[in-house]
Amino acid sequence: MKRRYTYLCAAAICLPTLASANSAAEQTDSVVLQNSSVALEPAKEKEPNWFRKIRLTGSVQTEFLIPVTDAGMGIPHTDRNVYAADVLNNTYFDLTLNAPYLSLGGRFEWAKWPLPGFEKDFEGWGVPYFWATGRYKWASLTAGDFYEQFGSGLILRTYQERSLGIDNAIRGGRLKLNPGAGVSFTALGGKQRRYWEHNSAWLWGADAEWNISEAFPRSFGGDYGLTVGFSYVGKHEKETLVMTDDNAFRLRLPETTAAFDGRVNLKLKDFSILAEAATKNNEPSADNNYTYRRGSAFMLSGAYSSKGFSALLQAKRSDNMSWRSDRDMTGVSSFINHLPAFTMTQTYALAAMYPYATQPDGEWAFQGEVRYTFKRKTPLGGKYGTGVRLSGSYIAGLDRNYPAGKPHKPSGYEVGSNGYGTPFWKMGELYYADVNFELNKKLSKSFNFTFFYLFQRYNQEVVLGHGVNGNMVTANTFIVEGQWKMRPRTQLRFEAQYLHTEQDLGDWLAATLELSLAPHWMFTITDMQNFNSNRELGPTKKNYYSFGVTYNYLRNRFYVAYGRTREGYNCSGGICRFVPASKGFTISYNYTF
C-alpha cells in the first residue's frame, strides 16, 4: 500500500505528516501549504459557568483569657470588676461569598464574657453585621451593614477596631457610581451601630470626587495630578430633655444637623499637598456640655519623596468637632467622624506608655517627619547603608475666651451658652509634644541593629482627666533592638528598653527575647519592671512578665501565653481604651480561608 503524506508548513519549514485514509483517497501526493504569516489560533478554552466563579472566603479570630489570682497586684481571679467570668473570650467569624455581579457577607461575634477593659454594653453575642452588594458595570448598590469614609474622615468615618471595641458600621443602603475616568460618587443612609443595638438617629450623606489628572491624562502626565472632593453628611435625632445648670430652663436642641467637607489634593512631581476643611452646625452634646457653637476642622499636609529621602509636614486645627449619632453618649462609641492624631504610632512597650488621645473639643496639632538613607560604601552608610528617621509632634489647646462674668464648668463650658470665643491662630496650653529619632543599621549579613530615642511631654490632666505626681510628665525613652539571623530558618530578636521620668510612676525597664524557627514556631519572653524613684507615690514597684509560644501551620495561627498585663491605655488612631491590670493564660487562634 502506498502511503500518502501531506505537508504542514510554517515559517518556510515543512513537516511531513501521515495522511488519514480518507484524505489519501482524495489526494495523491499533494502538498498543502499554509501562509507562514498567519499565526495558528489556539483552541479557545470554555469559560467556566456562573457557579464555578463563586468564591467563599472567611476568617476566624478568637482570643481567650483564663485569669488566675495575683496576690502581688491584689486581684483575685473572682474579681468581677476586672474579670466577667472564669473564662473570658472575644470571637469573630467573618464569611464572604463573591459571585459575578453579587457579593454577600456576614459576621458572627461572641463576647458574652469579654476580655478585660471593654465597656459593659460590649457584652453579647449574635450576628450584628451582614450585607449584600450588587454590581453592574460602573455602579454598585449595598444593602445592610457597611463601613465608609469621606475624605480624611473629618465628617464621616465608620470602621472597626477590635482591640478598642469599636464598630460603628452603618446599617442601611449605599450607592457607588464611577461613570467616567476619575469620577466617583457615593450616597448613603441608615443608622449607626452601637455595640448590639443601633442608635435612633438617622444618618445620610453624599461624597463626590473628581481626579482631574485621571480624566485628562495627556494634559497632566505621570508627574502631575489634581483631585478635588466635596462631602455632605446629615443627622436627624429626636430632641432629648436637657436642663440648664440651674434647672431653670429646658434646652431646645436642634433635631437636624449637617456637616460639610471640601478638599484638594495636588501632586507636583515628587511633592504632594492635601488641603481639607470641614464645618459642622451647632449641636449641643455631652462632649461639649450642651453648648451652641459651630464646629470646624482644617488640615494641611505636604509630603516629598525621592529615592533615599522623604519628608512630611502637616498641621490641623479642630474646634468643637465631636460628632456622634447619640448626643448623650460618651466614651469610644457612636462617633460619626474621626479626627486623626498627629502623633507617631508607637510599637515598643515603653514608648507606648504615654499615648495621646485626640481632644474632640479642639486642638492645634503639628507633625513633621524626615527619613534619609545613607548610601552604601559611604562614611555614614558603611557596607550596607544606614537609615535614619527624625519626627516630632506638637499639640496644644485652643486659646479660649469665656464671656466675662459667666461661670463655667471645670470643662470650660456653661450649659446652654454659646461656649467660648477663640482667636484662630492663637494656641493655649500644651497637651502633648514628642521627638522621635530612629537609626537602622545592618552590621553584617546576619545582624540588623536599631536604636530608638523618644522625648515626650504629656499632659495627664488633659488626656487622662487626672494627674499623678504632677499634671505634666516629661519622659525620655531609650530602646535598642537587634535581629540576628542565626541560620536560614532561625532568627533571634531582642529588645532592651529604658524609660526615665521624675513624674507619674517613675522609671521603667523592659526587655524582650523572641526566637523564630521558621516556618512554624516562635517563642517569646517579655519583662517590664517599674523602679519607682518618687517616695511620695508609695510602693508602686511592679514586675510584669509574659511567656508566649506561637505556632503557624498553613493558614492557621495558634498562640499561648502566660503572664501579667500592666494597666494602661490601649490606643489606635487617637482613640484610647483603658485596660485594667490582669494575670492569666492567654490563648488565641486565627484562621483565614
User: What gross morphology would you assign?
Assistant: globular
Helical coverage, percent range: under 10%
* C-alpha-based Rg, rounded: 31 Å
Average pLDDT number:
87
> Strand fraction band?
over 45%
**Sheet with the most strands, sense and barrel status:** 24 strands, antiparallel, barrel
Total count of helical runs of at least 4 residues: 4
Distance between the termini: 63 Å
What is the chains' assembly state? single chain
- Taking pLDDT < 50 over at least 5 consecutive residues as the criterion, the unreliable ranges are 1-39
Class by SSE composition: mainly beta
Number of strands: 31
Fold topology:
Layout (H helix, E strand, L loop, with lengths): L4 E6 L2 E6 L2 H6 L28 E13 L20 E12 L2 E10 L12 E13 L2 E8 L13 E2 L4 E2 L2 E11 L2 E12 L2 E2 L3 E10 H4 L1 H4 L3 E13 L19 E13 L2 E10 L14 E12 L2 E11 L42 E13 L11 E13 L28 E18 L2 E13 H4 L8 E16 L2 E12 L5 E11 L3 E11 L11 E11 L2 E10 L2 E5 L2 E5 L2 E11 L1
Antiparallel strand pairs: 1-2, 3-4, 3-31, 4-5, 5-6, 6-7, 7-10, 8-9, 10-11, 11-12, 11-13, 13-14, 14-15, 15-16, 16-17, 17-18, 18-19, 19-20, 20-21, 21-22, 22-23, 23-24, 24-25, 25-26, 26-27, 27-28, 28-31, 29-30
